[in-house]
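Two proteins, back to back. First:
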Amino acid sequence: MSKPAMIHVTYIETTPEKLWEALTSAAFTEQYWFGRRIESDWTIGSPVRFFDSADDSLTDSGEVLVYDEPKTLAYTFKNETQTDAPGRVTFTIEPAGKNVVKLQVVHDGITEDTVEGWRNGWAPILANLKTYLETSRTLEITFS
């Protein structure tokens, strides 16, 4: 039996370098991650912290596992309000044409009963990332 994972693949009209910047720059992440700012020095073993721009509270945290610019980024990921063990998020970037990249996001190390919740959480973030890189605007998503 395979272990549970959330897997998302999308194609984005951008360069690997610009996508890498979008994943690792605090100012960039705040634009498409619905006000969350991701901070790290991106050295393997260093902390990764997610802050809510509304009150600067720590919402999620992790530790850098892989930093292979601009191909693979991986870190552990734990929501600060949950008691589950941290999962792992891996971003894989591959050229897929002229100014097109394939982005695969795998969130594993999670439980079967949380896969759908993670999928629902990642979907708008990744759609917003794609839209922002391609149009320089964000989506106006209403969460219910």
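And the second protein:
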Amino acid sequence: MTAHTPDAAQIDASGDHSRNGPIVADVQPEPPRASKWLISVFTITMFTGSFALLTPTLFAVAYKVQLVDPQGKETTLGVIFGISAAINLVTGPLFGVLSDRTRLRWGRRRPWITAGIVICVGSGLLMALATTTTLIGVGWIMYSMGVGCALGAMNPVLAETIPSSQRGTVGALVGVAGQLAGVTGTLAGGMLTGHLLLLFLLPVCVFAALFALYAFTIPDRPAQATTDRQALSEVLRQLVFDPREHRDFALVWLGRFLMQVGLTFLSTYQLYFLLDRLGLVPEEAGRQLAFVGGLGILVTTSFAIVGGVLSDRLKRRKVFIYLATALSATGLIILAFADGIPLFATAVVFILAAAGLFGSVDLALASDVIPDAAESGRWMGIYYVANTTSSAIAPIFAPVILLIGGGKNYTALFLVGAVVALGASLAARHIRAVR
């Protein structure tokens, strides 16, 4: 996916391009160049938010489920993640829309981030103490809603405070931060298996601590008084858009969804892959996941930052999306036939490189083609629904795929993931507003 002509960011932000939707009169000016301090604080805070999300997603919930239901863990985990993701299809972007219209003196984003952190603390405690899979499921639904509330209010910051000329670079930094958060989360998970309270509460406490710095650093003003108050039904209607009117935005959404389906197969079942196919115990699996993730940090950082910077300088996005999907498919194919840690590590390095490159460039691309920058919370919320939708659908189909041939068919699971991830290239190919 490619970047824009010099004034295309404002054109896309307003929805005023003839091939991608109707003209919208309220054109928002480009924000001024962001300072290094603002970028640093935003990146660090996004890291801690990702840490709070990924520690339970990649390790803690799967570990807790196998403690309570060792025989049916694959199906139970899929149901828990699928139901919570389905609920967040609505609640995630809803928080973004509501934050667009919040008029509190403290700002329109900060109150929702605070509320999300509070929800995560309570639900994390519930999961740590749960003795049934039902309670784990309820806790995870609440926890994921809390993270969605917090990140749904933080995501629009990129479009609101970062000019288009810096979005690829900042998107790369955020992408690297997300990968580091995943490695940190799996390492913390492997070290805290004997301390369930810390396993579930430490990540969100770190997020809360760094949010204090964010709250006093990132500009945040109330929504304008001219912003109309709307009924909840009207707010919910804003979560739906016509893909024919905003074709490019729809294609960006579709590409992210397809890429994330392939990656979700790995992130959801990587712990069970190490336990069932490679015969590791949970503590050792946690250490290996962290070790392998650590190997991928350099390549992830390189691909994310270099890809983001080059996409800004070359004013091109698509070529980087093509490369990312090819790397992802290669890694998933290697993983499908891995029978030891060396091949597993090789596959994950490919996939981490793909995730870093895709995450940085695709985030910049989404910010470029937002139909209306005045409602960036709404549109970025819809954009991140692609993640939630993939997280809802992938765990539903994964147990079915795993049952092929008698069960635990990880070869079939990851081959299907590779094919789906390649679909993101086809979606990118048809985007018109960028190259």
